[in-house]
Amino acid sequence: MDITTAGAVPLDRPDEFYIGGRWVAPTSSDTIDVVDSATEQVYFSVAEARNADIAAAVGAARAAFDDGPWPRMTHGQRAEYLRAISSAVEDRVEDVAQIWPRESGILAGAARAVMGEVIGAYSYYAELAASFPFEEPATPSGGGGYGMIVREPVGVVGAIIPWNVPMTLIAYKLAPALLAGCTVVLKASPEAPGAALIMAEIAEQVGLPAGVLNVVTADREVSETLVRDPRVDKITFTGSTAAGKAIAGIMTERVGRFTLELGGKSAAVVLDDADIAEAARVLAGAECFLTGQICGSLTRIIVPRHRHDEMVEGLAEAFSQVRVGDPFDPAVQMGPLATERQRERVEGYVEIGLSEGAKLAAGGGRPAGLDRGWFVQPTVFGNVDNSWRIAQEEIFGPVLTVIPAKDEQDAIRIANDSIYGLNASVFTRDVDKALAVGRQLRAGTVGHNDNRADFGIGFGGFKQSGIGREGGVAGLLPYLENKTMVLEDKPGGSE
């Protein structure tokens, strides 16, 4: 199969950082190569931030917050910038559709579709400027004539994003932070920095005041400088649970604020009345999105024991028909993994599953004819025990495990027997049963008959899947601090 080769990279200045409202040269000559996931060829290179670059970005954000106009604007004024950003993002959809598949393996068509949500996120938070109660009266309990709750920006935000869905995750961090009045240091991942650089170009285009958004790319070791800097008031992080624990430890030590959206090993609880063939089709199709590199993937399929074989066969049949290949080919249904390291990880878990005694029903290897690129076959394991590593550890690739349950309560027990609690779904023809079972699942989101992870309402996890929520009104709250004010009389200008 011929793989689409890359043309010109649609980025203006990948060799510089965006700090303090201008493009600046890095303090070292270090660079990071971004490798095309389908061809294994270097797509482009970006400057690699060192500690001094991070410090400069934090300094610019701090000055913009302490002395600049941004926090002192009205929410309506900041909303106008969000609307301009939304429009500018819409103009860059095709650029994203060229960069994102090469960085992370998503299908180009899927990338274009996802961008609708990204555009909408900036518009949504712009609209909240008029409806969210940034100030509201409160009755004093200890004297005083008038009380108020005032919700003010938390300050300087360090936003650390992963490589899998960067434009989406940037939007749900940046949009609420900007509406609140915060300034931001956006730290891109070394594997997929293109989205952050596009947002830097957009910040310049729409005229964001200097220092409101600062963009750097750094590896993990240097990124810790951002977390440790006392000038940073809050860290918002999406990534692995292990990295999230390290960030939480550092921020707790200095009593900084943090939001963590971490890993998952999410369960699909398939009840006895479910349409197994339809459930298998839905679950297999969802797992092909971004080659299973999604924290909210429904990878533990819990099914009544007497319907186990039917589910395994349905998933195996669906996966056997998936065309894997060039993410720019409209006929392809699943692209490559993002990196060689990711493919080695997935292949390692396939070996673990076999050694644990799971039945390999489909996949497990590399697709025939794809000798270049980080391609894997979508894989199904049956007869999995929930205590096994392939059922407990996040694989972050297209690997589904089918786990038999004795009855409904056993299925709920198995679903909750995990350190994670990010996402879940209940497959049943009965909506009331879906609600009843869903209320017993310890997960931040519970869907019905599909993966219903929804950033528009709010997304985040229970247990080791994270702290806090992103998206919706809940996603604005972490960027605000409540201030109680008790005055002798109601002020004349107060609403």
Question: Could you walk me through the main structural features you see in this protein, from its secondary elements to its overall organization?
Answer:
The protein folds into 2 domains: 17-262 and 467-484, Aldehyde Dehydrogenase, Chain A, domain 1 (3-Layer(aba) Sandwich); 266-455, 3-Layer(aba) Sandwich (Aldehyde Dehydrogenase, Chain A, domain 2), CATH 3.40.309. It has 14 helices and 22 strands. Helix content is 37%, strand content 21%. The chain is an alpha/beta fold. The protein has helices at 51-67, 75-91, 93-104, 108-131, 166-180, 194-206, 220-228, 241-253, 276-288, 308-320, 340-356, 389-392, 408-416, 431-438, and strands spanning 17-19, 22-24, 31-35, 42-47, 135-138, 146-153, 156-160, 183-188, 213-217, 234-238, 257-261, 266-270, 298-304, 359-362, 379-382, 399-405, 420-421, 423-427, 445-448, 462-463, 466-467, 480-487. The strands form 6 sheets. It has a 7-stranded mixed beta sheet with strand order 14-15-16-13-12-18-19, sandwiched between helices. The chain has a 6-stranded mixed beta sheet with strand order 9-8-7-10-11-21, with helices on both faces. Strands 5-6-22 form a 3-stranded antiparallel beta sheet, with no helix packed on it. β8 (183-188), α6 (194-206) and β9 form a beta-alpha-beta unit. α3 (93-104) crosses α4. The model has no long low-confidence stretch (mean pLDDT 97).
